[in-house]
TrEMBL record:
Enzyme Commission number(s) from the entry: 3.4.11.2
Record GO biological process: proteolysis
Name of the coding gene: pepN
Residues of the Peptidase M1 membrane alanine aminopeptidase domain: 232-445
Protein name: Aminopeptidase N
Domain of life of the organism encoding this protein: Bacteria
Amino acid sequence: PKVIYLKDYQAPEYLIDETNLTFELYEDHSLVHAQLVMRRNPERAAGDAGAGLPPLVLDGQQLELLALSMDDQALTAADYQLDDSHLTLQPKAATFTLDSTVRIHPETNTALEGLYKSGKMFCTQCEAEGFRKITYYLDRPDVMSKFTTTVTAEQHRYPVLLSNGNPVASGSEEGGRHWATWQDPFKKPAYLFALVAGDLWCVEDSFTTMTARDVALRIYVEPENIDKVQHAMDSLKKSMRWDEEVYGREYDLDIFMIVAVNDFNMGAMENKGLNIFNSSCVLAKAETATDAAHQRVEAVVAHEYFHNWSGNRVTCRDWFQLSLKEGFTVFRDAEFSADMNSRTVKRIEDVAFLRTNQFAEDAGPMAHPVRPDSFMEISNFYTLTVYEKGSEVVRMIHTLLGAEGFRKGTDLYFERHDGQAVTCDDFIKAMEDANGVDLTQFKRWYSQAGTPRLAVTEAFDPAARTYTLSFRQSCPATPGQAEKLPFVIPVELGLLDAAGNDLPLRLAGEAQAGGGNRVISVTEAEQSFTFVDIAEKPLPSLLRGLSAPVKLSFPYDRDQLMFLMQHDSDGFNRWDAGQQLSVQVLQELIGQHQRGEPLQLDPRLLTAFRTLLDDESLDQAMVAEMLSLPSEAYLTEISEVADVDAIHAAREFTRQSIGATLFEPLLARYQANRAISRETGYVAEAAHIARRTLQNIALSYLMQSGKADVLAACLEQFKDCDNMTERLSALAVLVNSGFEQEKAEALACFADYFKDDPLVMDQWFSVQAGCGLPGGLERVQALMEHPAFTLKNPNKVRALIGAFANQNLVNFHRADGAGYRFLADHVITLNALNPQIASRQLAPLTRWRKYDDGRQQLMRAELERILASGELSSDVFEVVSKSLA
Ligand code: B3K
Ligand code: ZN
């Protein structure tokens, strides 16, 4: 595959003003007729007078061309060139109409890109470059066109026919077929095209916009799921209101539709007016979806809805700009979720995810800037860096400009670029122009890869009453980028006095002190800030809320961390202090394990946890977060060389000690919360979610004791609850316990009861795939044979193979390499079936540099084996070859 570079970008030679499509859907093939009203791009026409018109090069893959005409003149093979990815022809005039008919095979499309079948329904996924598998086209986001789409299909099998925009006509045909025509008044790139045909039911509602227009809202699902749609509908209405209130953005069509499909490569897709969702991100009801799943539905519905402005009305010029829409939209959905739920808890979850996963990507062979400079396969760049780090970059702009300044910037951005395909520079320019600031240096966040390090030291001068913080930033080398220039790092901070209060802050040279929390910008490689009027040595609280995506180090001792855990006015930093304390304690245990010494837990961690459990005034959601130990994956990420077995042993030992030492207060919390659950039944509100989270964490610690009455409580919860949150937690706790008989019974009973609900079965697979007890690989291999498992469904692959390789580190990294072999085998199979999924599942193998020599060799050998396994997709080839480089 060839490498595409950002620096080679050129505007398109031709534009497509109108796109008129007719689909004829059949069981063994489909036909696509496309009429494209085209013209020479005036931007590129300067030299035409002398040189004549350039050739028209259309994208097209896996298409069987049946007919082609230009301005109603039929073209023959002599008039064009065809290869496996392009159709090239020579226009005679600067404006013309091109008509084509192609045959395609959605019924055998297992890559789930382009037009395909998910179960009994037809659906599409076009982003990034799937439209070229539907018809010959200029498949690039800077070609925007008005689409009219007619779909014809058998009425009985496909009573519902949908596409983008508004329905304008429909009718019946001979032979039991029918048709519908949809028109989208907004110009859009082909990646936002969508089509759905199926036997679907819908829940309908409506939304009145800020200018009093009525919008029809419809969520389409297969009939058996009609009772799981209300939560998504509520989330949609909340999102629409929030975008009006917070960003002044109103919805623009008369109808907004969501369709749930079972076979989908990612979470969801923001097609104009017709979002298509992985059913896992739409369907939720108490009996079958956990609290976390409910929150994910809310977040994804919001994310896709928000794209209507950040992505659709204003789109990307080219795919290097992907973070323009994705980073921004992730930031928007994160703020929405923060407003709908607990802000601090949302931030904690996002930061834990970023630090564990995006930081690992930034440190690995696929590291790339938020705006990459090159790629082989764009599908590989829908990454944590583009999404989550991209969102952190937007968050920093928000922090630097303040909420009001940021809003001025987004208003200008949307106004200036409505209907355009633009770049990250345009976004920054709008922020600069609206606020009169210069973000030139800040833009390095878009071009430099890697996670910056920020080392901080302090100096207190009692005589001068000054306190100086010195910052030193650096950024490790990443592929293709040996040296980095300093970033702009916004550091939100406070200084705590001995009583734990924030001191008023005045920097040397300032006239008067401000509040106790402020943001300073570190812009140099080394830079100091001196605070004046400081009577006693304070304790700094740094990088509050993770105000920049960096790795901070400050030489806190454990007592100081315990103090911050209790007193920091910033809830996020209270949690973070607890995490740092846990990390220090766990790293000490890891060292003991490696030296073959008996493990000795620092009792201060237990004291800190006891204090949390004893304080009834604390938000239960916070208590739950703070009682959660850093994951094995995070401990791996922060290790120089990760010792999987030592990490697992240290963490399990700590969990056991917590369960034993804090048995009484944990039991009290568990019983109190379980009693409320029994009494109130499932309530979807934040306070109840918090309560259940704490209840379930307590249960998992208590179960470490192996006591019979805890087992009884666990079984009672498993059997006598009315919701998936309690049931699945109880099941997970059992699965990770040594109660073999109860475990087997619970698993069997669960599977029997939920066998017809694929999303619930996904959770059943995941819980087992993640179990760190010995024999994990054998258990997963056996589950691959289960009738509910199939490699053709991405959710199943993620639930079993993905959960095993990403969450069951101690089993996946078995010293004999069997876990690696297992993953590579399936990557090889998936490469032929679904390249995008194959390439994603591969990620754990690319992290080989983190492990000891023996494991490194085994992991590399599997990567080599994949490389030699035959014809590789561009997706898999790019990841494997870059990770071996
Ligand atoms: N924009 C889509 C992702 C498309 C991925 C294509 N491989 C979903 C989202 O980010 O909203
Ligand atoms: Zn998105």
